[in-house]
UniProtKB/TrEMBL annotation:
GO terms for cellular component: cytosol; membrane; trans-Golgi network. The gene is ARFRP1. This is ADP-ribosylation factor-related protein 1. SUPFAM superfamilies: P-loop containing nucleoside triphosphate hydrolases. Interacts with SYS1. Trans-Golgi-associated GTPase that regulates protein sorting. Controls the targeting of ARL1 and its effector to the trans-Golgi. Required for the lipidation of chylomicrons in the intestine and required for VLDL lipidation in the liver. SMART domains: ARF, RAB, SAR. Mg(2+) binds at residues 31, 56. It comes from Sphenodon punctatus (Tuatara). GTP binds at residues 24-31, 78, 134-137.
Length: 201
């Protein structure tokens, strides 16, 4: 009887787990976005003061539950020497959140190069990508059309996967819920699709 009840309990409260990578250049706002996400989606999470967050070196992790989905975030360092480690995580990921600093026009082409390299990786084929145009709270920031124009020659490399460009401020939280809810919808839908080529052993 105990086994039956505990099996039923486990079935009812079971959550499917999804690994989501948070990528982008250093200083784009990845860690701030992760903290904001945990603060908004975890009931008892107190969060650290946003002013105490320092740029990602190595790896930050975080987990949130949204409905029956459990998202496990891996926030990877964006410095040039750390970008070479990104692809070690691709095979395990169900979704990618790519963060762009909309206030840093000077590094936009560097960000585009990193995005292009990531998006053309075979290991990420079909994986949904949420592009966050971050720091939209800054008055002088680049607009979504400006960023789309700068990234326009990547569009045909995105292929048929789900991709959304979302205006966001990781600092104020604007656009964070919309982005996360979109990602949850995509990864849950994908799990019911036939497996990706790389998953077939
Ligand atoms: P990273 O993890 O991608 O390296 P961080 O980036 O999250 O460490 O953020 C880098 C800096 O950008 C931080 O400022 C942080 O407060 C700021 N930042 C992140 N998101 C936003 C945003 O949406 N709006 C604004 N205005 N600033 C943001 P400091 O001064 O600590 O370097």
């Amino acid at each position: 009887m105990y086994t039956l009840l505990s099996g039923l309990y486990k079935y009812m409260f079971r959550r499917d787990e999804y690994c989501i990578l948070i990528l982008g250049l250093d200083n784009a706002g990845k860690t701030t976005f992760l903290e904001q996400t945990k603060t908004r989606f975890s009931r008892n999470y107190k969060g650290m003061s946003f002013s105490k967050i320092t740029t990602t070196v190595g790896l930050n992790i975080g987990t949130i539950d949204v409905g029956k989905a459990r998202l496990m975030f891996w926030d990877l360092g964006g410095q040039e020497e750390l970008q070479s480690l990104w692809d070690k995580y691709y095979a395990e990921s169900h979704g990618v959140i790519y963060v762009i600093d909309s206030t840093d026009e000077e590094r936009l082409s560097e960000s585009k190069r990193a995005f292009e390299k990531m998006v053309t990786s075979d290991a990420l084929e079909g994986v949904p990508i949420l592009v966050l145009a971050n720091k939209q709270d800054v008055e002088t920031c680049l607009s979504i059309p400006d960023i789309k124009t700068a990234f326009s020659d990547c569009i045909n490399k995105i292929g048929k996967r789900d991709c959304l460009t979302q205006a966001c401020s990781a600092l104020t939280g604007k656009g964070v819920n919309e982005g996360i809810e979109w990602m949850v919808k995509c990864v849950v839908r994908n799990i019911h699709r036939p497996p990706r080529q790389k998953d077939i052993k």
